[in-house]
Model the fold of this input.
Amino acid sequence: MNVIFLLIAASTVVAGIFLAAFVWAVREGQYDDDRSPAVRMLHDPVPPVKQVAPTPNPSAKERGLTKINAR
Amino acid sequence: MMERFQYDNRIVKDFLFVTILWGVVGMLVGLIAAIQLVVPEFNLASWFSFGRLRPLHTNAVIFAFVGNGIFAGVYYSLQRLLKTRMFSDVLGNIHFWGWQLIIVAAAVTLPLGMTTGKEYAELEWPIDILITLVWVVFGINMFGTILKRRERHLYVAIWFYIATWVTVAMLHIVNSIELPISMTKSYSWYAGVQDALVQWWYGHNAVAFFLTTPYLGLMYYFLPKAANRPVYSYKLSIIHFWALIFLYIWAGPHHLLYSALPEWAQSLGTVFSIMLIAPSWGGMLNGLLTLRGAWDRVREDPVLKFFVVAVTCYGMATLEGPLLSLKSINAIAHYTDWIIAHVHIGGIGWNGFMAFGMIYWLVPRLYGTQLFSKKLANVHFWLGTLGIIFYAVPLYFAGFFQSMMWKQFTPDGYLVYANFLDTLLQIRTAYWLRVLGGSIYIVGVFVMVYNVWRTVAAGRLIANEEAEAPPLEKMTIATESGHWHRWIERRPVQMLVLSLLVVGIGGVLELVPTFLVKSNVPTISSVKPYTPLELHGRDIYVREGCYTCHSQMVRPFRSETERYGEYAKAGEFVYDHPFQWGSKRTGPDLLRVGGKYSHSWHYYHMFDPTSMSPGSLMPAYTHLYDAVLDTSNTRDKINAMITLGVPYAADFPAQANKDLVMQSAAIAAGLKKDGIEALSDREIIALIAYLQRMGTDIKAKTPVATLQTR
Done:
């Protein structure tokens, strides 16, 4: 049964190499856009009024949204 | 060119409703269990006793309530963050019904006593396999959605979801490796110390990756949405994510401080637990600071109120956790109600309030209407908050004072509270207050149920919500520039591999040495395998959930060796599949109970605990006196043990039942001497055999005569 742990140990070495690759990627990196993703997620654009498939009561839905998101 | 598509809201609605349903069920079971701790008569039947309901409570609130809440939030936010419908409606349905099937199976099997005896992983092997399959379905659906996304960037919440999926899969599989002997019974592959390490590596990371990371993901989506402002620092969210998943995986051994786990592993757990404060508080501050300049909104919006208290509870619990990992504090708090208070700050504060806030935010949107009553939501908020306070504060006091009583000596060097029960009876008031706190909390949940019901009745489900977004552009040279983290955000598969590696390294480095280094488990020549009758008795001990109130781990403190006997050695547990160290002492430690009392004491005590310990809060186990011990599987059990490496002689399985009959007859004869006419084929005899064996192997005097097993 002990052989399985040797296998795990071997995969640890592989894991270490991957981790080094990750650190390398970190060092290589620059940072510019760490702002827009946080803002972008706030916007869920509602498609124009033209309905493709009939959905029940969409206007009420929008009403609910705008009311709560208004501020 | 914009593409039109529809978000699937029906699956979100389904998960959201079962979140509420199982939340109510799981909390009610918790309330029942809380009452059983003060009113032992309330243990109405074998299937309705604390030892079996407590696992049901923990499994229900963790995997059913919190779990379905995760899925509801992920299915809602993932579609919108990636501007696409979920990968497959069919997989979503399989995921939904599969998960509910697991929950129902748990609700049936746990009260019936089908359990592996490992905390938060009690479900037996067929259900474990089902969990794995459903989890894979969830994974395919999630990664499929990520692959077909219309938004190149993976928002921070999604990383948390990915880390959750990967790590839970790994934890569940590694901890659930067990050897089945029938459809309803299996033995953990690991034994003793190794089983304990694997179990708490799992247990702690279940907290980390089932109760924490997915809900942090939900926080990063629903909190900014509800406040309608971006998260305070996106950069901080990236840093604290990687730090959190890298550190969390190492902290498990802090559950085993002062135990028979090797010292180096304990220290590792402590160090990483302390380091965890930084990323944990990074998340908390990022959540709270998102509301900077908008605190007036918190006053008005119940959703934000729930979120604020939830995130605050997260911050408190994640500061308290590392402090509890310090050995000096752990020495006081471990095994007491302090820990119960701590986990409920996390459970009903962080997870509960996050889920409630999310429910109040989602239901009106899914049904295209307004929340029926903001006022009732506020009522729920205050009931919930009061409930948390009334639940936790008395238990903090109870835990601390009981621990002090356990450790108190007279000037002459004797234990002041030599009788364990005396310390328990002192904190009964706190137990009643806990019942009160839990009740208030649940009343709040019922208020929410009514509010949600009226909201749903007033609206109509928008099963498919219209949306549009431009298709994903082909990758351009832009990869080279931009934030370093974009590199990984654009590669979900590499991201998956990396997350697995990052968490895997921690786990492997901690586990492998313990398995490999033999010196970690000193071999004690006097430790022998259990006799067949004792093995059966041990299985009854596991089945009845004795470990939910009794530990089997004497720590090396004078107050404990004085009370219980010699402290625990790692080598004593080498034949324990599973280990039964326990995590809470509502009753005394049982490691050295063997030979401490007579057979007849146990016989009377299990039938009516108050007959031997007046005022005892332990349930009676009368059904063990009627049930005939099932010896048809003795051979299978012994064979399973041999497979697991327990050194029984090769011809032993064939004659195991002969040995069993002899030993039970001997115990019945012993009882007869005390004037008890006991039937030797009953389960109680096996349990007595196990109790009398416990911890005796390294005592000088050999206990009850048993056959040689090798």
